[in-house]
Amino acid sequence: MSYVSLYDRDHEIEHHDPDTFLTKYVWSQDHKVIAIQYGGIAILVGVVALVLSILMRLQLGFPNTLAIINPESYYQFVTMHGMIMVVYLLTALFLGGFGNYLIPLMCGARDMVFPFLNMLSVWVYLLSVIILIASFFVPGGATGAGWTLYPPQSLSAGTPGTDLGIILMLVSLGVFIVAATMGGLNYVTTVLQYRCKGMTLMRLPLSVWGIFTATILALLAFPALLVSAIMMILDHSIGTSFFMPAMISAGEQLSYNDGSPILFQHLFWFFGHPEVYIVALPAFGLVSDVLATHARKNIFGYRMMVWAILAIGGLSFIVWAHHMYVSGMNPYFGFFFATTTLIIAVPTALKVYNWVLTLWQGNLHLRTPMLFAIGFIFTFIHGGLTGLFLGNVTIDLPLSDTYFVVAHFHMVMGVSPILVVFASIYHWFPLMSGRMFNETLGKWHFWLTFLGAYAVYLPMHYLGFQGVPRRYFSLGNTDFLPESAHTLNASITVSAIILALAQILFFVNIFMSLRSGKKAKPNCWGATSLEWLTPDTPPKHGNWGHDLPEVHRWAYDYSVPGQEQDFTPQTVPASEVPVGRDHGVEHN
Amino acid sequence: MTITLIFLAIIMATVIFWLLKQTFNVEPWVSDEVADEVSGASLDLKPQAIALTTFMAVATSLFALFASAYSLRMEMPDWRPLNEPFILWMNSAFLVLASIGYQWSRNNVAKTDIGSKKVLNGLIVAGTFSILFLIGQLLAWKDLSDQGMFASTNPAVAFFYVFTAMHGLHLLGGLYVWARSVMKIQKNQDIRVVRTSVELCTIYWHFMLLVWMLLFGLMIAT
Fold first, then answer.
1. I need a surface site. Which of A22, A31, A128, B178 has the fewest CB within 10 A?
2. B2-24+44-221 falls under which CATH superfamily?
């Protein structure tokens, strides 16, 4: 293709080389810098959400001991914690962070197809974060409607932030969607058109498959959130009745007519459920590559893994109403959505089997990234199995709105993706920074995080079985709850504080390693995929020096029999491997 | 939600079928010299064309969701059908002419032996009628508000304002690219600099026309 050769010309590279501090690190169009900017902003705002969760836990474990936590602020913390974690941390980090860093490198490209649009994407994302955080400081404070923002509650008197807070939240989401769309157009086009010679789609690492499919989901699902945000802003600002029903509030008849709150729920979850997979699919991809590299074994069932990613992506659009079983839907719909929900468990379980089978008889190197990756398999199985409970209408009804649900979704789309985030950061840190991290600190970080997460979320399942409702500021003295439920809540809070403090180890490790970590050798893990094969570590602007790489094999040639080293990089042609043995397949 | 589901099912089925086609009968773990020679581009299209197609898929999802919301909201008892202002028919004709203008421009931009005049003429036709369309939409808004039909009056009216505003904003985005093309031609007098832009904008204008016809049709039929 002509544009590839054009881009490969020397003067083109020189022309694009940034030479000032501003163009290199601030207004950078380099996908790696943009990735780190995305990641940095996401982690920073994630820390805010983490602090909010500790404040919530303090109230739940030790009610009314902190004066700053009152019912209003509690609901604001719940709302902002949820929205930040799901959208502004996980979505941004996986797609904007890892997507930006890995797609061009793993595809063998110099950059994204549209670098300027890419740069615009991160700044628009920052704007969305600023608008969101600003909502804490406006009159009335941030919205306290819960992360689902269900009307009529989100717009009704009595809910915190019904003046400006909710508007800023909705505007921020709209701005975020613009940023995600800009990024998404880049990721899709780059994966489709900017791969290097020999890089067929089926030679792509699973990380790219996961991020690529999640991007398609994001592009098609985010409009649902945009539609609901626009219509809710209009209900709030100019008195339309899209979602707001006729109602009396504080003794006063409001001007709304027969708006449909259920319509909002449909739109919200039409975005909300694919959102789970927008977070999960990149995690599936990244963890596959970490596992294969540190197990020195090819990923088990590569094609099945690709097909499973595609199947999950397709099915994720027809399961949304399993979040609405208690909304009074037609039982036949309930049956339909329960069935699709259980069907989606099949490709998901297939992936889990394949991860475990990848480990089977592998040469496991239990370094920090590998520990986090294996930890993910545990938490994901755990969260996935409780999902089967909640996917069934009859079991969901009594468990709905209890701590069982909180435990389930935190295990499956909180803890699990976060473990993959850590696995991936530790795995690619040497490439990104050119420095090794401290392995001892990393292992401490893993064990405290992994065990801490279980200490927090495992007991929540029991609280759920006992009927402890979620979203309550205070449980008070209720007959149906034994004293042990309160003790358990206190224990969860203590565990949560330890878990949160353990994350300091991560930041200390990163900053110490950046300052004085051992210099990383090129391809320090002995990986096969292209990102490790750049002429420089970390890769410079343009990634590949003068010539783009050429690919001759898939990304999983680990421990191929008859070969000297236990990995064969993707750039090694068949003529350079011992005759008769290639990719573990004996030739006649 | 049926409308959305049908649209999305078509989009997802196309994407997944195409991707699956790339993966059938492939054994990526086996050395394959044919694969070694494969260029890194999956489709014989310019990257901008893929980005536009992807963007149109996003816009399709957006408008399909609005249409779904419309059909769900219609079921509530306070729904009163809207008498669409007559000017919308004239606006629709403007948009058709704008599309024809762009198509004319596109047909000429491929021929390098002609000057920029014809291409520019086509662009001016497209732009003028698009702007007339937008002014007409604003007049329709004025017409409704003069009758006391505000967004808060009735959900059908509110949807009318939302549909026209969203569609108009998308067209404004197109007009930004249109304005850049016109300025480039005037500056360079060389139509090759705008070839991709004109080709892609033509598709986008046809797409915007299709979206408008579907939205307008939905509002008239209900």
1. A22
2. Cytochrome c oxidase, subunit III, four-helix bundle (1.20.120.80)
